[in-house]
Amino acid sequence: MENLLGRIVAGNVTDENETDYFVQVAGTTFRLSKSEIKKPLKTGASFRGFTYENEDHQMAMTRNAPDAQVDHYGWGTVVRNQRQLGVFVNIGLPDKDIVVSLDDLPDMMELWPQKGDRLLIALREDAKHRLWGVLADTDIYQAIAQPAKKDQQNANVTATVYQLKLVGTRVMTANYELGFIHPSEREREPRLGEEIHARVIGVHDEGTLNLSMKPRAYEAIDDDAAMLLASLQHSKEGHLEFSDKSSPAAIKAYFGISKGQFKRAIGHLLKARLITQHDGELWLVPADQAAAPADETTQSAD
C-alpha cells in the first residue's frame, strides 16, 4: 500500500454492495460511496479517485479530491485541537480530518490555531500509512504570492497568519500578497492560522507589505474625544471657542461632560494630530494637512 494514500490513483472495480463500490489499486481495496457516482459502475471498470483512510480506519476513495494532497498544497479549516497530538484540519473529505502534529506547531499552545482558523497544508504518509498535514513553508508562500501595488498605502486588508517569529508576524492577504507585522505594530501576537484585519503602512519595491494591526489615530480615540471631534467638524470654519482653560460650567453646559473628561479628550485629539489649540480656541486640522501619526512609520520585513 506504500505511496497510495493522499493521492489520485487509478484502480478497477472488483465488487459492490448496497452502499459502496470496491476499487482495487495495486492489491489494496478501497471503498467508494455510491452516492458520489451518477452512472453505475460495472465490475472491471476503471476508476480514478483520491485515496485515504477514513475515521473508521477503512480504506476509502472519493472522486471529490481535496486541494491538499501529497506534494500538493491546499487550504484547510481547523476544527479542533488536542494537546497531546496537534490540530485537526478539515480539507474537504466527508469522513476524515487531517492532523497537523504538535511538533510543527508553536511551543506556546495559546498560539496554536483555533477552530475556524485556516492553514495551508500538504499531506504526507508515514511508515504506518497514516496521513499527516504538513504546513507550507516560506518558499511555498513566496511561490504562490502576488505582488502588492504601490497605491495600497493605508488600505485595509484581511490576511491569514502563516509564520510566527520573534522579529514579527508573516501573513498572506486574501489577494495572496505577502505581509509583515512588526511587534510594535500589534497589541497582541496573533495565532498561527488566524485571520487578522490590518492596514498597509508600507509597500516594498519587491511587492511585499508592511502592516499594522493598531487602529488609526482617529479610530483609537474614546467616546468623549469622538464627540469633541464631531463638534469641531460641524462647527463654522472648524473651530470652537473652548480650550483647556475654559470654565467647568461652560464645558458642562455645551458638551455635557466634566472638565477632566474634556481635557482628556483634547489630549487624545492633540496626540492624534487631529486638532490644534491656540488663541484660546480649538481648531480642526484639515485632513490634507494632518501629519502622519507616529505609528505609521514602516519596519523592514527582512
TrEMBL record:
Q: Give a single Pfam family match.
A: CvfB_1st
- Domain Conserved virulence factor B first S1, by residue range, is 5-62
Any GO molecular function: DNA binding
Q: Where's the Conserved virulence factor B third S1 domain?
A: 141-215
Alphabetized Gene3D superfamilies for the sequence: 2.40.50.330, Nucleic acid-binding proteins, Winged helix-like DNA-binding domain superfamily/Winged helix DNA-binding domain
Does this entry carry the keyword DNA-binding?
yes
* Conserved virulence factor B second S1 domain segment(s): 73-133
Which domain of life, per UniProt? Bacteria
Conserved virulence factor B-like winged helix domain location is: 226-284
What are the protein's UniProt keywords? DNA-binding
Q: Which InterPro entries match?
A: CvfB_fam (IPR014464), CvfB_S1_2nd (IPR048588), CvfB_S1_3rd (IPR048587), CvfB_S1_st (IPR039566), CvfB_WH (IPR040764), NA-bd_OB-fold (IPR012340), WH-like_DNA-bd_sf (IPR036388)
- Which family is this sequence assigned to? Belongs to the CvfB family.
The protein's name in its UniProt record = DNA-binding protein
